[in-house]
Design brief:
Number of helices of chain A: 22
Oligomer: homodimer
Number of strands of chain A: 15
Distance between the termini of chain A: 84 Å
Chain lengths: 742, 742
């Protein structure tokens, strides 16, 4: 061996060792950033080496001929995403093997030359196709609009993030719903009504001079799942949001959202003409009021040309509305719709109305009020209807308004923030709940008249469609307060784009993008997520029970509460527990809410064949009633509670075993949260059984233990400052002191 | 060349190239985390390569013989810090060249054998020394307690972080003050009174089941600068914090803080015996009340053996106190002190008292109330006195109580959160302000009786000492709301450890640890930080003006405000602008507040030689009064306002040029904030001049432009939901509508 050779071998060994050391070094020396969830499902961490080798040749450069803010956003996302995943820079380049060519026929001669079948994609759809271009194997992302290209870019990244093959792609996709909106229930003072992920991310005070970079991250996440509108403020609205001072801030946010195809909406207070405009009335028939809305809206559009419109909560829980002036909900909606129509804006008019002055079953009131108004709303109005007739319970039958307003644009409102689901600390995967409602058959036009077909407009031939989610986003570092709550944000967007996706598909995608694509992980965690929804129904409100929640904050059980000013805010109003039995008689012998459903459903719910899961929602049932299982109602109830707790125990064990797949920070947080969930599931079960037993006087079934305390113990549990409750102040608690420490 | 040689050379080249590529890669492919400020001054980013080479031989391993939570914290910090800075793992090891040996004589035979001079270091001090041990050059970090070792470890890291030589160290350091405390003004509902960095980081609702990892990061930062106690809740206290439910949560936090030598304190509401204990009175002379405090405190210590004690805001701004029962402040403090004494706990009894029923000049009231009580407070009571007699103004003369209570333990309270200093968006480096007060000569025992000597106990021979800062920490990602506000947290701790440090030294350390040690950076930015304090005085309240702030939120100017329920909440109460002149006559011909100072100061402040900077604080001066500069008061005032604005302009230019030294995220945020600061400096100047001109009727001096709007414009500016104001609710604004958008 020559000297040179020896040196070569030596340096070879040195450099090889150094090379390997460097490869290993990030783990050793650079303080590895804990995975705090900030990057959501757009993590773009380097793939495993084998996958890098497989995908690198298929993503060598970005070819984009056009220039626009949305195309730039698409390019930037591809550069960021591919660079991260493939662990090497991917930049702009020419047509070559592995190039990704993005554009529209208008912006890109290359794309125009391909004569792709884009017509069915509409304004927002995209096509991704592997083709040969000038002899090079390339991937085309094409659309009719730059926004469509952006959606296609996110879709290609998702395919790579979830390790789908991309060598022979022929994918086209267009959104099923036209309006895919989030409603932030954020107050201008920074609190969030029903927010469990910290406070509002909107730092209004510093806007427009300082725009937090987080707004852009949130916007990217929204756009990546197809959300195309957000309402910035609480539906219990502050009129100040419509002042010129705030519109200037809103315009600055709209500028952040615009390249990502997201329009800004605002919750408008119906009485704003009085509060801001100094008028004597907000009567929609008053010409001054009409003029005020027109002037206000014109002013907004001068600053925000793509302003989306308004969400309005009127005559609901203390909010003003047209009924204050003896006008109908339609007249109220239309005065605002008329102001918006010339600009292409939309009113989302909430159907969540009920009155403490109306002794009618609360579940019936929205239907009663809106049914006669069918056909009276302007074309640019949606009646925004919660998924169920009460209020985002763990399970509700679908709202009877679905299918009942054929001449009205119907939007479904669901809740991402877990107001009635144990807050962010409880793992409850919500797409399961939403899918159940979407699949609900209203029978309005015979079998197959699903809620999905109502809201996508196909059942009645509407050319517009919408679904709205109440956001779970706050200023917590991980955005939504817990590792798994991000899945609800992700899932909401994906589902509104494609109502046919299953909760399993969505969960698997999200897990792969957020944690790992290791099949062993998904095989354990997907079933856990799917089961989580039935678990919460079982440990909180089994068999059709609903609204058993403690007052105001809705944290923990309060089935005994009967002293609130409004009868329909009391849990006893809903559970009707008495010596005879349990449940709300909504059959014709009771409130007759069943008759608001199509006849086949009405008779099912009023009769003996009613499914167990809806039983106590519609019927008052004797404690000793024999259930389908052969058990008495009492025993069945307890079995369900204990099944729910057991399921959470199973979730804990599943997650504990996931340690090898998950970073410490997220894993540990979820471990702590599942422990809280199990403790609180037990609390729910014990408190409810202790209360119901005062009526049933029946013994615990064999193998099921009695609550460890008596009812007074559970009644005395008092939670000050539970998050998310509206108007919580220190003063509220001073009348309810607790003993000092002993 | 042999084949092998050739191959060797080839592979050599390949690996060398790959090696270099890998070195360069983090910048290219791994999405570099923006510097969001989360790591504070404990960033531990890899040093420049030359520095790594220099320091690596001096830090090769950690030798720690003892085991305790505090020693573990020290070890962990050294492993984290050295590993990051030196960019290679540094772990536990044996005595060898470059070893860092840590311990106390008790825990470490090695340290005990060295017979180091530790006796003067007290319980918290440390010694760092380069020595030869068994023939090896090592660095010793020794102390009398494990906490001292932790402080020494942070000190060694600081030396490396600021690129000080560490080969021949002989450093010993002990804290000048015994109690170095932060008061968090965090409410249990998550809001922070006067907080401008988001909401509270204390997520009480999830405690104790989930302890956010941020608590540990905050604790490390506190300990790194020597802070040894934190009060967790607002001094306008909620009695609930003393309930058993909350004490369980507090105990969990105390467990996080304990290894870092930080004791937990709570703000106690004086009326807690009534609210929590269901007693009829909180009269400190009532035996039941005395028994209640004893029982409460005993209960707390059972759960938190190292509990620090209480901060009490009594008979101040609506808070209950001993005066409600015709008892003195001393009797109030002592009842709580007696309960704490057996456990070693302390009461920090705030001197911030003033009454709307007392027509006396507010600046005099605390002195009048506390002066007669000197010697009446228990040994474990501090009278916690704000730096000035009013309330954390941009500049105040030192509080007359300093030097006036020789038989009383005096703690000085300063404010880190910038309630009266433009909030977090204004860059105002506070150690300059604190140092000015510490250096203030009270003349109480002749020349040299500085405030520093009062609070370190040396002036009157007290064996205890304390300084308290109102925290600026919130749940913003960067902790304090802005890049530069972190310097105030850092500086507060450093200064309480060593009152002799200069603001320049502290700034230079902090900049090196937080940004870069490039001298060009510090040479530009240190002077900018130092100048920032005088700038805010000039553009807000020059020449001794004070409390010109808009109502409640204290955001922006309101010198005209005269309609508040308490006369001493009105800016007009303080500026006394009238046809004759401007300023508060506190000379013997006026309120005679000057007489509360030692005679030499009293006559200085009442006479013609008063320094310009305190002029309008103590004297009412004619508009045409000839100042030392030769200008009239009116002209001088305007010159000061414009000097302040010009200084902010200079700060903007300085910072703009720092782009090469700073990451984009922090640089851009500070650029935006300085633009806000300049805009608001102009607003302050214009609004105040417009108001004062209605009295002076004097023209603008040559070269100084008139305010662009008339006074009514500035009066009409209305800021809803400014952060940090207590009790802000939507309802407050509904009576003050603003026009809708035009």
């Amino acid at each position: 061996m020559t000297r040179r050779g020896r040196l070569g071998a030596y340096t070879f060994r040195f450099f090889a060792a150094a090379f390997l050391l460097l490869l290993a070094m990030p783990a050793l020396t650079m303080p590895v950033r804990a995975e705090d969830g900030y990057d959501l499902w757009l993590r773009y961490r380097p793939m495993e080496t084998s996958a890098q080798a497989q995908y690198r040749p298929l993503a060598t450069a970005i070819v984009s001929e056009g220039i626009s803010p949305s195309l730039d956003a698409a390019k930037t996302e591809l550069v960021r995403g591919l660079g991260g995943l493939l662990n090497r820079p991917v930049g702009a380049g020419a047509v070559q093997d592995g190039a990704i060519v993005i554009g529209t026929p208008t912006s890109s001669p290359l794309v125009a030359g391909l004569k792709l079948p884009l017509s069915a994609l509409g304004k927002e759809g995209y096509l991704i196709r592997s083709i040969s271009l000038s002899g090079h194997a390339v991937t085309i992302i094409a659309a009719n609009s730059d926004i469509g290209v952006l959606y296609g870019s996110f879709a290609l990244l998702r395919l790579i993030q979830t390790r789908q093959p991309i060598a022979r792609l022929d994918v086209s996709s267009a959104p099923r719903l036209k309006y895919r909106l989030l409603n932030h229930w954020d107050n201008l003072d920074g609190t969030i009504e029903r927010g469990y992920a910290g406070h509002s991310i909107f730092d209004w005070h510093k806007m427009p001079d300082y725009m937090d970079p987080r707004y852009t991250v949130m916007t990217r996440a929204d756009a990546s799942v197809g959300i195309n509108g957000i309402a910035l403020n609480n539906v219990s609205a502050d009129p100040w949001i419509l002042s010129s001072m705030y519109i200037e801030k809103v315009a600055a946010l709209a500028a952040v959202l615009r390249p990502y195809g997201i329009r800004v909406y605002l919750a408008a207070k119906f009485s704003a003409p009085v509060e801001l405009g100094k008028l004597k009335t907000a009567d929609p028939a008053d010409p001054q009021v009409q003029a005020w809305w027109k002037k206000e809206v014109d002013g907004i559009y001068r600053r925000i040309p793509d302003f989306g419109g308004f969400v309005v909560k009127a005559n609901s829980e203390g909010q003003p509305g047209p009924r204050d002036y003896n006008r109908s909900q339609a007249e109220g909606a239309n005065v605002i719709a008329d102001a918006l129509a010339p600009h292409g804006g939309t009113v989302f008019w909430r159907a969540f109305v009920y009155s403490e002055k109306d002794p009618t079953d609360r579940a019936k009131q929205a239907y009663n009020e809106f049914k006669p108004l069918d056909g009276k709303f302007r074309d640019n109005v949606f009646v925004q209807t919660k998924n169920g007739a009460i209020d985002f319970q763990p399970r509700e039958p679908a709202h009877p308004l679905f299918g009942a307003l054929p001449k009205t644009n119907m939007a479904m409102e669901v809740q991402l923030t877990k107001e009635y689901l144990g807050f962010a600390t409880h793992l409850v995967y919500l797409p399961v709940l939403w899918k159940e409602v979407l699949d609900w058959d209203t029978m309005a036009k015979g079998k197959g008249s699903t809620v999905a077909k109502v809201i996508d407009g196909s059942l009645e031939g509407h050319d517009t469609s919408a679904m709205v989610g109440v956001s779970n986003i706050g200023d917590d570092r991980n955005w939504t307060g817990a590792p798994f709550t991000q899945a609800d944000w992700y899932g909401f967007g994906r589902l509104t784009w494609d109502l046919n996706l299953t909760p399993e598909q969505i969960a698997r995608e999200w897990l792969g993008m957020s944690f790992t694509n290791d099949p062993a992980f998904a095989n354990a965690v997907v079933p856990m997520m799917i089961a989580s929804r039935e678990a919460v129904v079982d440990y909180m409100t089994p068999l059709g029970l609903h609204h058993m929640f403690a007052t105001n904050h809705h944290y923990g059980p309060g089935p005994w509460i009967n002293d609130l000013s409004r009868p329909d805010w009391n849990p006893t109003y809903y559970n009707r527990a008495d010596a005879k039995g349990l449940g709300f008689d909504r059959t014709p012998s009771g409130s007759d809410a069943t008759s608001q459903y199509a006849p086949p459903l009405a008779s099912l719910f009023a009769g003996p064949d009613i499914p167990d899961r809806d039983l106590l929602w519609f019927q008052h049932v004797a404690w000793g009633h024999k259930m389908k299982s052969g058990r008495t109602l009492w025993d069945e109830l307890i079995v369900h509670y204990d099944t729910g707790i057991a399921e959470v125990g199973e979730m804990r064990r599943t997650w504990a075993a996931m340690n090898p797949y998950v970073d410490d920070e997220r894993w540990s947080q979820q471990v702590a949260f599942l422990a809280i969930q199990e403790k609180e599931a037990q609390w729910w079960r014990d408190a409810c059984i202790a209360y119901f037993q005062t009526f049933s006087h029946m013994p615990m079934p064999a193998g099921h233990s009695a609550p460890p305390h008596d009812l007074s113990f559970y009644k005395a549990i008092y939670i000050p400052y539970a998050p998310g409750a509206p108007g919580v102040t220190s003063a509220a608690f001073h009348n309810k002191p607790k003993d000092p420490i002993e």
